[in-house]
Amino acid sequence: MGVTSEAWWAVWWPWMLLWAVTGAGLVTLLTVALPRLVRARRTVTPDITDGICFYLHDKMVMDHYQMRSYTAALRKEVEQRTSDSKDGTVRAKVFGVGADGGRKENTEVVSRYLEVAEPISVIGLIMKVLEEKRVIVHVDLPSRSVTRSTALLRTTSGAGGDVHLRDVEGFVLIRGRYRATGDEGTSTVFLAPYGDPADPSQGPRVRVTCATEGLRTQVSQGTFSARCLGKVQEWNAAEGVLEVQAMAIFR
Asked: Is 96 helix (H, G, I), strand (E, B) or coil?
């Protein structure tokens, strides 16, 4: 028996050593690569809908949702959430509404969500898709910076040097310190300065005009930090004001 064992060991020990080294290498590779993959994924699809939805232009949101065929993306999102159950039972909470039922009812659940899709339900999905497609240009007014990204390269020819926001044709997500400057009955105007000037009413500013009916919470007195998703309209050189049409504002 001892001879047999020694003979077996003599034949197979090189292979066992190779397997051991290969296994150790795989473990090391996973240990190093997995955190990087997770970080990369988070960088690619950050959660840009954190915070309270302060303003929503309902018609613009739904028009964009219907024109861009987001239905397939919404269906996939709902199906993924309703199917994520080990015991075959659907227990999901999508867009703040609970759903409970067997897997055979998934189609019915998904169809119900598609039928009742509302602006507040689909804005997060729209932003997720826009971000994944690299079409949102991120702007930070306090630091006077624009994130160099694929979205910037796609939307303006000035990405190689100085970036002029007036040239950005795609969506912009503008972080700034906003303040209400007037209520015209059907619209409310917000201004946010470039940088952090002592007098926010002086110097270059971003002006966002919102439909008053789209404000979802009471307008704060004074300055508040927020992010505005919208599109650049025009640059008023005489006033030093960049006009932006807002789709949504998050606080």
From this structure: coil
pTM recorded for the entire structure = 0.67
The first and second tokens of residue 122, run together, are 């689909």
Helix, strand or coil for residue 194? coil
Q: What is the pLDDT of residues 100-145, one digit of tens each?
A: 544 556 666 666 666 667 888 788 888 888 888 888 889 999 999 8
Closest CA to 240 of 209, 206, 197, 195: 206
Angle between helical axes of 106-115 and 71-83 (0-180°, round to 10): 140
Q: Which of 89, 88, 105 is nearest to 113 (CA)?
A: 105
Q: What is the pLDDT of residues 201-242, one digit of tens each?
A: 788 999 999 999 999 888 878 899 999 999 999 999 889 999
What is the SS3 assignment for 5? Answer: helix
Kindly report, residue by residue over 45-67, the tens digit of the pLDDT: 455 566 789 999 999 998 888 87
Which residue type is seen at 60?
A: M
Query: Which one, of 59, 62, 92, 88, lies nearest residue 77 by Cα?
Result: 92
Please give the span between the terminal C-alpha atoms of the chain, in angstroms, as a whole number: 76
Residue 186, CA atoms < 13 Å, CB-side half-sphere: 0
Distance, in Å, from the CA atom of 122 to the CA atom of 116, rounded to the nearest integer, reads: 10
Q: Scan for tokens 């079409």, then name that residue.
A: 135
Tell which residue, 225, 238, 221, 228, has the closest CA to residue 207.
Answer: 228
User: Quick check: 11 pLDDT over 50?
Assistant: yes
What is the DSSP secondary-structure string of 64-95? HHHHTT-HHHHHHHHHHHHH--TTSEEEEEET
